[in-house]
Amino acid sequence: MDAEQLRENAHKMVDFIADYYKNLETFPVLSQVEPGYLSKLLPDSAPNHPESLENVLADVQSKIIPGVTHWQSPGYFAYFPSNSSTAGFLGEMLSAGFNIIGFSWVTSPAATELEVIVLDWLAKMLKLPEHLLSSGQGGGVIQGTASEAILVALLAARDKALKKVGKTSLPQLVAYASDQAHASMQKACQIAGIHPENCRLVKTDSSINYALSPNLLREAISEDIAAGLIPFFLSSTVGTTSSTAVDPLSALGKIAKDNELWFHIDAAYAGSACICPEYRQHLDGVEEADSFNMNTHKWFLTNFDCSPLWVKDRSALIQSLSTKPEYLKNRASEANMVLDFKDWQIPLGRRFRSLKLWMVLRLYGLENLQCYIRNHIKLAKQFEELVAADSRFEIVVPCVFALVCFRLLPAHNDQDFGNKLNQDLLDSVNSTGKIFISHTVLSGKYILRFVVGAPLTEENHIISAWEIFQDQATLLKSN
């Protein structure tokens, strides 16, 4: 493809995507297809000869889009958001156009150096401590997801601990988190060779809104030490998946320091909100962290994937993850003049992801990003007020950021019946195609999760969504 062919086809593709966004509200938010639908519509082998872009896009329209769940729809209120934006999209286009594989500085100096600069910018917006910036012994690196971030932190912590206590002590290492921590914590332990029974998930409850209790953590650590085990890692969460619980970072950081644990903070979802001064308090205690992670591809207008991780001591990551094959050696790396991000992550290859974050920060600016976050939180509070005003429903935990956890109350105090009632409500609401929500379970209760965060969501979408809940609740109650 020459430059003119690229220009022609790229215009067609941009027009197609622009039309997609223009018509986004006409599609069912949750795909309504049955499993295996696509194999009935596409041939069982690839074509021998080239087809036109027009024909391919026609198939995208008629065959692919019906099987898409539309994460950018203003009626998307499930899981957590996965933001797209004009700035993020343009940055992604530019990255795809360059198509560099920036595993070391020499493979494309701009990719490494822009990543360092942009993550320092973002760290300053979050008011992270100086030791997490590139000017000190630490610094930031973009991972693909928060799952990768916690894995590399855990690996660094594991190797640091084994260096101290001996390699044969691996079966004795214990990692801690709350039972509300993301499942990536358990997966990281599996990959790192931490025995499943040594991945300690401390029980939480409604009395402190499902945050990790420092007292229960201390007890668990003391019991493990008494049993001859070796505590080495603590993961805390700012904005848990189920209910956006915020763990008490300052108290947990002190416990980690007293017991020489690596202290990781997972702020994948709620970290974005902390660029607003009124929410920055939720990061108090981050100065004790050995590693801190957030996902700019969730709620920060940056297209997936882009998950910044900052570490206090980059040498811990490098010692754990570095390889030095002959074919990758070069003068700059050998002289320790540069950073090679291949040594900060699991894969060798890496995309030029800092471009899209750089463009988001420049094309929106801090004030607009703060307004964007605040508007979603305002809309979530409005939805919470609508739920609270209807006596048929209850708010399960207070809305901290932009997630509302609620449920439809059963006629009798029967938990099993109440769980079935709310599952039926979720299914009936999602089957309308107008909105899409997800669920969780807290204290044995089936809970509906309503997350405001799609870029196109406005007040009228919140009001329309609540009307759907009311209508479907009335139908269920009358049956």
Automatic annotation (TrEMBL):
Cofactor(s) annotated in UniProt: pyridoxal 5'-phosphate
Coiled-coil residues: none
Any one of the GO CC terms: cytoplasm
Record InterPro entries: Aromatic_deC, PyrdxlP-dep_de-COase, PyrdxlP-dep_Trfase, PyrdxlP-dep_Trfase_major, PyrdxlP-dep_Trfase_small, Pyridoxal-P_BS
Sites of N6-(pyridoxal phosphate)lysine modification: 298
EC numbers on record: 4.1.1.25
Enzyme class: lyase
Source organism superkingdom: Eukaryota
Protein name: tyrosine decarboxylase
GO biological process: amino acid metabolic process; carboxylic acid metabolic process
Organism for this UniProt entry: Papaver nudicaule
